[in-house]
Design goal:
This protein has 5 helices and no strands. By secondary structure, it is mostly helical. Helix 1 packs across helix 2 and helix 3 packs antiparallel against helix 4. The longest helix has 30 residues.
Length: 151
């Protein structure tokens, strides 16, 4: 269930008050340093990959198989390191949806939250909701049916 207009407005006011009161804390909460660290780590991984290619090619040209193997291992480690950093938030995940209003401080985001919408319509002869939701959704649905049955 998305936030209502009133809730969004209150959240934006709280964000603005936080930025005005403690800009350093707001910067920390925005995660700008975390993103910078992840970008640096990804750049390091790409650089290590290039070094691995140079070692691999040098080993092939100078007929030193051990140097080529070291280069290949460095390349694999660099790819693994870079991809894990990319998946942990250094890539497209870090640029989430922006706040709908233009007066919110730069870098603060509004995240979608709440319950996922359930599919409508009866299932079977009892008219139950499908059980494809999360465990909590199923528990809440069962609780709601029990409460309705008592009335």
């Amino acid at each position: 269930m998305p936030l209502s207009e009133e809730e969004l407005r209150l959240l934006e006011q709280m964000e603005r008050a936080l930025v005005a009161e403690d800009p350093k804390l707001a910067s920390t909460l925005r995660g700008t340093k975390v993103r910078q660290h992840q970008r640096r780590a990804i750049a390091l991984g790409v650089t290590a990959f290039v070094v691995g290619i140079v070692l691999l090619m040098s080993g092939a040209v100078m007929s030193l198989p051990w140097l080529g193997v070291i280069g290949f291992v460095v390349m694999l480690a660099a790819v693994f390191f870079t991809l894990t950093r990319w998946k942990s938030g250094g890539g497209a995940a870090a640029s989430g949806p922006q706040a709908p209003s233009g007066d919110a401080p730069a870098g603060l985001r509004v995240l979608d939250g709440g319950k996922k919408s359930r599919r409508k319509g009866p299932r079977g002869s009892r008219g139950q909701q499908p059980s494809s939701g999360t465990m909590m959704d199923r528990f809440e649905e069962r609780w709601r049916r029990r409460r309705e049955g008592e009335r």
